[in-house]
Amino acid sequence: MFWEMGARMVNMTFILPSPSEILLKLWEIKSLLLIEHLPATLSIIAIGLFISIGLGVGLAVWMISSRIVERALYPILISSQTIPIIALAPIFVLWFGYSIWSKVVVTVLIAFFPIAVNTFDGLCSTREDLKELMLTMGASNKDIFMKVSIPSALPYFYSGLKVAVTMSVIGAAIGEWLGAQAGLGYFSRRMMTQFDGAGVFAPIVILSLIGIVLFLLVVLLERRSLNWRKTK
To answer: Which residues cross the membrane (predicted)?
Structure first.
């Protein structure tokens, strides 16, 4: 309400369009966004998330299996997040061109970190008394990992995945913003060069909805797969 009133008072739609103007613009260009640009962005998010999950879980398992690997990789893992992604994105465009992979790399670099760190913390949280109990019952290391460590790490994994799915949307948008031929981020940047404020915000609304939907899907998957866990 205040946004609507303020935007109408300022009357500078190319800088601050009102919500009604954004929704009207979204309705006008819905076919262009949904048919041409949305599939490109969803492809980047899907591929980036798939790689991020595999890479994040793989690194977590590798680090938990060896103290040497943990000491070698964990600092690198932290260091990968200290470099501004906005500074690396042009380099990826230089390496991979305007293909989908330059955007996927940006997405993976942002999304894999919370999955790797949270999964590793979850594996580290496995109770030692349960491990000892399994050993006394003749269980192998594989049995302990599958039946104790993984269930202990699943809540942590889902916590990291909730962060990763929303960050993947940001990564895809950043990649498209800096270099793409299609996508919601690309369309927003193109509208900015035309001083079309409503056109800039319209794809951002869709990006926000994508993040919310992905987050809710992870929550639903978490509840289905962790129905044994007591929740408040």
So the answer is: 40-64, 76-98, 104-124, 156-180, 200-221
**Burial environment of residue 207 by CB neighbours within 10 A (0 to 12, 13 to 18, 19 or more):** buried
pTM (two decimals)? 0.85
- The single-letter code of the amino acid at 172 is A
Question: In this predicted model, what pLDDT tens digit does every residue of 122-134 receive, in sequence order?
Answer: 988 888 777 777 7
More confident residue, 45 or 29: 45
Token representation of residue 185 = 């981020």
Give burial (CB, 10 Å; 0-12/13-18/19+) of 105: buried
What would you measure as the largest C-alpha separation in the chain, in angstroms?
A: 75
Which domains are assigned to the chain? Answer: 26-222 (1.10.3720.10)
Residue range 108-123, pLDDT digits in tens = 989 999 999 999 999 8
